[in-house]
Amino acid sequence: MSSEIVKIDPTTYGMQATEAAQVEAVFLPMIDKMKELEAQFNEIALLPIEPTTCKKAKELRLQYVKIRTGTAAIHKSAKEYYRKGGLFVDGWKNAQAFASQEKETVLEKIECHFENLEKERKEKLKIERLSLLAGLCDDPSMYPVENMSDPAFTQLLDGLTVAKKQREDAIRIAEENRIAKEKADREEQERIRLENDRLKKEAEAAEVERKKQEKILADEREKAAKEKAEIEEKARKEREAAQALADAAKKKADEQRRVLEQKAAREKADAELAAKIEKEKQEKILAAEKEAARIAAEKAAKEKAELEKKLADLIKCPKCSHEFSIKETKGV
Fold first, then answer.
1. DSSP reduced 3-state for 50
2. pTM to 2 decimals?
3. What kind and span of H or E run contains 327?
């Protein structure tokens, strides 16, 4: 580089050479210091980039920063003092700041070389690791993967993989349980239907048997009444015949009457027994019907309770997941 670090033409600002010399004299100490650093700058700019070079670049950059900030202080003081040379002073300040800033940029790039390489390495590592975590969780970026050691990241990757498999297994098992439950419900409904059909057939058969027994008893009563009528008719005829035979046949008629009365008593007792049997049969049939009705009512109540429980498990608020009872859902 030229030994003239900063060169400004004073005529550009409408100043005489003697006036410009006074301003230049103010900035010359800082220019001399920059000249002293020029050799170091050229040396560091050509050095291979390694930790020691980075350290030297930082130290030299800080010296340039100090010169630049000192120049800024001179600029402020000179501008206040030199009213007419304000623009000229600005030119010095800007030109020198530009020259220093350019060197600072070069030095800072050298200084932060390894730091920038590390940032690039971490960014690349972050992209690679986030791609491995994609699909394993909702937000992989929440993990500082670029700062994790390889074992730590491997542990995280394995953990999220296992967690994902567990979630998938839970979903699969829940679906299998749902299908099994639906199948069990269908089988239970079929069993209930078959049971109801069986009870209905049994009730119909019991009704047929009851009517059959009623007909048998009615036939027996009719037969008994007919026999009784025949006996009474026969007794009447015998009494008429006995009356005709007078006193001799009276004893025989009385004996026959006694026999007939005994027979009638037996027949009456048989009729009462038949009525009692009929009554007991009717009571048994009525008791069977009541028991069948009670069993059907209990089953219906149980089915209703199970249905209400299922509905209570299924009816939920889509906004707050609140579970509603069957009563709470009426009218909604």
1. coil
2. 0.31
3. helix 326-329
Residues 6+ apart with CB under 8 A from 211: none
**Closest to 311 (Cα-Cα) out of 332, 296, 288:** 332
Task: Name which of 146, 45, 35, 46 is nearest 99 in CA terms.
Answer: 35
For the stretch 93-146, pLDDT in tens is 777 778 788 888 888 888 888 888 888 888 898 888 888 888 887 788 888 888
Q: How many residues does the chain have?
A: 332
Identify the H or E element spanning 161. helix 150-245
Q: Is 323 helix (H, G, I), strand (E, B) or coil?
A: strand
Query: Per-residue pLDDT for 273 more than 50?
Result: yes
3-state secondary structure of 137: strand
Judge contact between 256 and 237, C-beta under 8 A.
no
* Angle ∠(300,199,215) on CA atoms, nearest 5: 130
Sign of the dihedral defined by the CA atoms of residues 174, 177, 183, 189, in that order? negative
